[in-house]
Amino acid sequence: MRAPIALMSVAEALNAILFHTWPLVARYCPLESALGLSLIEQVVADIDLPPFDKSIVDGYAIRSADVARGTTKLLVVEEVLAGMTPSRTLGTGEASAIMTGAPMPKGADAIVMFERVERPEKDIVVVHGPILPGHNRMPRGREMRAGDIVVPAGAVLDSAKLGVLASVGASEALVQPRPIVAIASTGDEIVPCDQKPGPGQIRNSNTPLLAGLVQEHGAIPRPLPIIPDRLDSLIDAFSRALDGPEPADVLLVSGGVSAGQRDLVPNAFARLGIEEVFHKVKVKPGKPIWFGARSSREGVPPTLVFGLPGNPVSGLVCFLLFVRPALEILSGHRSASPHSMPTFPLAAPVQHRDDRDNYRPARFTAPSDDPGSTIEVLPSVGSSDLRAVASADGFAIFPAGERTYNAGDPVGFLDRRSWRFTARPS
Ligand code: AMP
Ligand code: MG
To answer: Which tens digit of pLDDT belongs to each residue from 380-422?
Structure first.
């Protein structure tokens, strides 16, 4: 009799995945669709900003020397609106009306706001001096100089950074594109969620669940129709996702990877030349997970293929543990290391005994950055109980073995919320 093969640990499985995962080929992307993407190449300013000495208020451009001795009447010689170029150079005793953002006339060195002057006649303005040179003037290049690095390589593009790129004329940015993730739920018993399940049937929770997770992590979901447990149907659907006109970077298949009679998914993968990297991990829930990779062309990262267990909570835990870090690498973001999960004190004692690492739905008793926050393990009836997870912030981690945990003991925590919604921008 052959000795049973020891199952891989979570850390070993993740290392195996990351070995096959590298960033997608960078491409230029218009700013409108670059939000959240990782910038590959630093962007430098092409011009000084502001490009000219400008007024930062609505008022009158003046020569400060004219008003150095106190209240002075000046002759208004021109009106400079934003977008205009002043035609007059100010002489002694002259002023130009000027709007916010308009270039300063030659000769002027300060602007006094409309609210601080009187205008007794059409051409006369009374200014109460003294006013310091440079008052309300933004000199050319004060914000940035041509050649300055305005957004460094590796930055994640948020709204403000997109605005900065636009201001220096970078209308397209060289970024790591969003991974395209095909999602295929399999199972003869699965019906679309707009149908009432017949005898023995169950609605498809996993396609919307996985599509949501994919979007929460900045990737593009491509949901496929439900696939029956038939080898030819599986092969046909997977090959279209992998080799169609817009091939997926990642294929997520739900169901059909356990030891059941109709668990044909690994078979279908083999027939499509997807090389198995591992099948089964020492984790609960999620043990049946399958992972493989398929190289297509030289220089193009391999397509990653995940066979996720059909129970929704198992699929979710596997996504967070294994798919999320892969998506982060594909899209050029640094990945959180599996070995450095944050720990939090337990709210109540927990009795644990299992030969696999357990991930149990849990929530914070106060916001997670509150120093007094603890985690409360939520009641759940098992790996199909997605409803318990919907009110959880993530999963408390109890490593394989037997142990009594007391209230206050630190345990690892797998956050199900995307870092995009919890982390501060760097
Ligand atoms: P399997 O991994 O195919 O053996 O499925 C395990 C369990 O998950 C079974 O009870 C399935 O009915 C259930 N299941 C599989 N796929 C889905 C799905 N898309 N939505 C909800 N439950 C599912
Ligand atoms: Mg099944």
So the answer is: 999 999 999 999 999 999 999 999 999 999 999 999 987 544 4
Write down the pLDDT at residue 341: 81
User: 3-state DSSP call for residue 87?
Assistant: coil
Q: Residue 135, Cβ neighbours under 10 Å: how many?
A: 17
Evaluate the CA torsion angle 259, 285, 200, 305 in order and state its sign. Answer: negative
Is 412 near ligand 1, meaning CB less than 6 Å away?
no
Q: Which of 321, 238, 253, 261 is nearest to 286 (CA)?
A: 321
Structure tokens at 317: 């835990």
255 lines ligand 1 (CB under 6 A): yes
- Angstrom distance (rounded) from CA 20 to CA 9: 17
366 Cβ below 6 A of ligand 1 = no
Would you report the helix, strand and coil content of the chain in percent, each value rounded to 5?
Answer: 20, 30, 45
Residue that has been written with the tokens 């760097």 in this structure = 426
State both tokens at 269.
């993968």
Q: Band the pLDDT of 424: cuts 50, 70, 90.
A: very low
- Reported as a single tens digit per residue, the pLDDT across 8-28 is 999 999 999 999 999 999 999
Long-range CB pairs of 129-133, under 8 A, 24+ apart, other chains included: 129/64, 129/66, 129/67, 129/68, 129/69, 129/70, 129/71, 129/72, 130/64, 130/67, 130/68, 130/69, 130/70, 131/62, 131/64, 131/67, 132/64, 133/64, 133/109
> In degrees, to the nearest 5, what angle opens at C-alpha 357 toward C-alphas 354 and 361?
100
- Looking at the CA of 229, which ligand is closest? 2
The yes-or-no verdict on residue 166 having pLDDT over 80 is: yes
* 362 and 410 Cβ atoms separated by less than 8 Å: no
φ and ψ at 144, to 5 degrees? Answer: -160, 155
Written as one string, the DSSP assignment of 10-68 is HHHHHHHHHHT--PPPPEEEEGGG-TTPBBSS-EE-SS-BSSS-EESSSEEEE-GGGGT
Q: What are the pLDDT digits (tens) for 250-260?
A: 999 999 999 88
Report pLDDT digits (tens) over 36-65.
999 999 999 999 999 999 999 999 999 999
Question: 199: number of CA atoms within 13 Å, CB side?
Answer: 0
What pTM, to 2 d.p., does this model score? Answer: 0.88
Ligand 2 mean position, distance from CA 264 (Å): 9
